[in-house]
Design brief:
The structure holds three protein chains of three kinds.
Chain A (H helix, E strand, L loop, with lengths): L1 H20 L3 H23 E2 L2 E2 L3 H30 L13
Antiparallel strand pairs in A: 1-2
Helix pairs in contact in A: 1-2, 2-3
Chain B lengths: L3 H19 L6 H19 L1 H4 L5 E5 L7 E5 L1 H24 L6 H20 L3 H19 L5 H32 L4 H8 L6 H18 L7 H8 L2 H27 L4 H23 L4 H22 L2 H32 L10 H4 L1 H14 L6 H15 L3 H25 L16 H19 L1 H20 L1
Antiparallel strand pairs in B: 1-2
Chain C lengths: L1 H19 L3 H21 L3 H24 L13 H24 L17 H21 L9
Helix pairs in contact in C: 1-2, 2-3
The chains are: A mainly alpha, B mainly alpha, C mainly alpha.
């Protein structure tokens, strides 16, 4: 199972890369989405044995997906409103708050 | 088995539902039902004091035995948090009646506020980690929207940053919980403590502890995870800022850390050092950054980071006195920081600015705001006989007793710098000469003054009656952590 | 479990493409593909709950993203911006962290000998869904508040 954990970690890090290095709001949201997917899959991998997922891992996985859906839909709407105000998705131009 | 724990969630949700149904018919329904619900929550939490503070645990279970259902339990630590939440939220909702007239669609604000309160109440109630996580998630989502409530440039920007950081935080908490569950087969906090007792930290448990520390530390805005806090707390509407700085970061960040590091993992010297170092870094850097601020709300936001550092330092010492001081400071900080945000909010509402350099001499025009903010400033600077003095003193004594004189020195230096910073606030806002354009400023409306006076009275009252407060409220809560820690 | 590894690899590749392309529309389509592989992967694990959760989540998110692009712009102009020294520093420190993590910490975690996972739990899942509905409710209320055209009354 080790390679699966490694791949899962790589997926998580790809998401982190999107959040940290990308300057476009939509790309940042996509990065968050990849992180949510990797966490949900990690839960399934952790609980997987003999053909089924044991314990509460499925429940926690569902909670992850629903929580991700809730936050990301709010993020997308906020991003659209931000574009309306600033006229760009470029996060380096969205900088009124300083200090 | 008792219905009481469930009421803490049902009352705010019911209020939100009622407001959503009736706001078209009756314009003031939001004002009325929010305040009634918050008052009911306060009465309810105070009514539980005699039983719970004696050491009884009130629990409620619905559904499956292993976290598939809803499992709440109230011990004295939970009750202390619930009382603090109720006091600050009642003050903020009274204040909102007039203050939120500056924003459009108040009903939507009230619905979000009640959802946030429901989420915040779930966190201390939760008997297992999944319910705890869900409480954090509900409160956080509602909070993101409340920060963005002004839907202008700054509001949306602060909220988006907060959404990103907050989500990364929750995505660290979840794997932490999952690894813990994988290793122990349980999610119940009490059960977990029993399973892990005497086991020592295996690498994977350590990994899970680190993930939880990072995730909850992000929520509690400890350095170096603090970047979102000054933006979010300074742009949100003032009553929301009061709740955010007063209780929100403590409930969804610090309370989880307390439960994880005292009630689940055994308190070892390593963990104690980690918490103390985190705490003192936040304590010092927070106050240094605050010294350079000229925006009054931003300044207060940086002080929140610093004061959270005191709490963590006290808890991290992990002696009975240290834990007592940490929890006492948690309550005190909620009161005076909530009050300071309300004061600054009323100054901003009456003058239209929160830049320190544009203000001055407001003591003549706004006496209630002036006096209450003086009380709050003296409390946060650690001036006797106000409440902040005693909790800081307890933390410093605890650090010296436990053999950490350097941490005591850091706490003392932080306190002096805090005082310097608040001398600046008082001097620029309330003393000095009144600028020409502020000649017509009036005192804030009655309904905004009442919560400010209430909180100021609590700051002074707790400072004078501190031995009684400690005996009745703080010591039972500290005992919960000590019994598990030993 | 070879299938899972291939699916995870596909999610990583499509996810990376979604982050790097210039056209935002392509980016969203690529994310949808990643989502599809994710849903398949959760069914391969035999997890109905997460699979259905994924279907619900992506069938809401992808149209929402397309709506967002329709309201705004389809081009990612930031892709051409040269990274500042600050960004390069962040990327390098991230890379160092990743290498240290995989070489030092990861093998010591003992992921290979975890022992058997907890037994599956039979029970009504309906109750747990009730709690998640609250999260969605909070998000809906949040969106309802954020879409207001005017937030503040000017004096």
């Amino acid at each position: 199972m080790i390679p699966v954990y490694v791949l899962c970690a790589i997926l998580f890090l790809t998401g982190i890369y999107g959040v940290v290095a990308k300057k476009n709001l939509i790309k940042i949201i996509i990065g968050i989405s990849l992180m949510v997917q990797s966490v949900a899959l990690l839960l399934l991998i952790l609980g997987y044995a003999a053909g089924e997922v044991g314990g509460l891992f499925q429940t926690i996985g569902l909670i992850t997906m629903i929580g991700g859906l809730a936050v990301m839909s709010l993020m997308i709407v906020t991003a659209v409103r931000l574009h309306e105000k600033y006229g760009t998705f470029d996060i380096s131009e969205i900088r009124r708050l300083k200090g | 088995m008792s219905i009481f724990p469930l009421l803490f969630v049902i009352i705010p949700l019911a209020a939100a539902a009622i407001i959503a149904v009736f706001y078209r018919v009756w314009e003031r329904s939001g004002d009325v039902f929010t305040n009634v619900a918050n008052a009911a929550l306060l009465v309810l939490s105070l009514a539980l004091v005699p039983t719970v503070m004696k050491g009884e645990i009130i629990s409620y279970d619905w559904g499956h035995s292993s976290s598939l259902g809803i499992h709440f339990s109230i011990d004295s630590l939970s009750l202390l948090m619930l009382i603090t939440i109720s006091v600050i939220c009642l003050a903020a909702s009274l204040y909102s009646v007039n203050y939120m007239e500056r924003y459009t669609s108040k009903p939507r604000y009230y619905i979000l506020l009640m959802l946030m309160i429901a989420g915040m109440n779930i966190v201390p109630l939760a008997a297992d980690l999944v319910n705890l996580y869900i409480g954090i998630e509900i409160a956080a989502v509602a909070c993101y929207a409340l920060v963005a409530f002004g839907v202008e440039h700054e509001y949306l920007e602060a909220s988006f940053k907060y959404q990103i950081m907050g989500t990364v935080g929750t995505l660290c908490i979840l794997p932490g919980i999952a690894f813990l569950y994988r290793m122990t087969g349980s999610l119940n906090i009490v059960e977990l403590h029993g399973i892990l007792a005497g086991q020592g930290l295996t690498p994977i448990l350590l990994f899970s502890a680190i993930l939880l520390l990072c995730g909850l530390g992000l929520k509690a805005a400890y350095m170096p995870f603090h970047a979102w806090l000054p933006d979010a707390h300074s742009t949100a509407p003032s009553p929301v800022s009061a709740i955010l700085s007063g209780v929100f970061i403590k409930v969804i960040g610090l309370y989880g850390m307390i439960r994880v590091f005292f009630c689940i993992f055994e308190m070892t010297t390593t963990i104690s050092w980690i918490l103390m170092v985190f705490g003192s870094i936040s304590l010092l850097l927070g106050v240094f950054l605050a010294l350079g601020q000229w925006d009054s709300k931003r300044l207060l936001a940086y002080h929140s980071i610093s004061q959270m550092g005191y709490i963590l330092l006290g808890l991290g010492i992990a002696t009975p006195l240290g834990i007592l001081g940490g929890l006492f400071h948690l309550v005190n900080h909620a009161l005076f920081k909530g009050l300071l945000f309300l004061d600054v909010g009323s100054v901003e509402m009456q003058t239209g600015t929160r830049e320190l350099k544009e203000l001055g001499g407001l003591n003549q025009k706004m006496p209630v705001t002036g006096i209450t903010s003086a009380i709050a400033s003296l409390s946060i600077s650690g001036f006797p006989p106000f409440n902040g003095f005693w909790s800081k003193l307890i933390i410093i004594i605890a650090a010296i007793q436990a053999g950490y004189p350097w941490f005591a020195a850091i706490a003392a230096i932080g306190s002096i710098l805090t005082m310097a910073s608040f001398l600046k606030v008082e001097k620029y806002i309330f003393f000095g000469s009144l600028p020409e354009k502020l000649q017509k400023v009036k005192e804030a409306p009655m309904l905004m003054c009442i919560p400010m006076v209430l909180l100021a009275a609590l700051c002074l009252g707790i400072g004078i009656a501190f031995p009684w407060i400690i005996d009745v409220f703080i010591r039972p809560a500290a005992d919960v952590l000590l019994i598990l820690g030993s | 479990m070879i299938g899972i590894e291939i699916l995870l690899g596909l999610i990583i590749v499509t996810g990376f493409v979604a982050l790097e392309v210039k056209k935002l529309r392509t980016s969203v389509i690529s994310l949808a593909a990643a989502g599809l592989f994710f849903i398949i992967a959760s069914f391969v694990f035999g997890s109905l709950e997460v699979g259905v959760g994924g279907i619900i989540a992506f069938s809401i998110l992808i149209p929402l993203l397309f709506w967002a692009l329709k309201q705004t712009t389809g081009e990612d102009i930031t892709i051409r911006i040269r990274p500042e020294p600050n960004d390069i520093f962040v990327l390098i420190s991230m890379a160092v962290f990743v290498i240290v993590f995989f070489l030092v910490a990861f093998p010591r975690l003992g992921l290979a000998e975890l022992g058997p996972p907890p037994a599956p739990i039979e029970g009504p899942a309906g109750l747990s869904i009730l709690r998640e509905v609250l999260v969605l409710l909070a998000a809906a209320a949040g969106i309802w508040a954020v879409i207001r055209k005017v937030g503040r009354r000017e004096k």
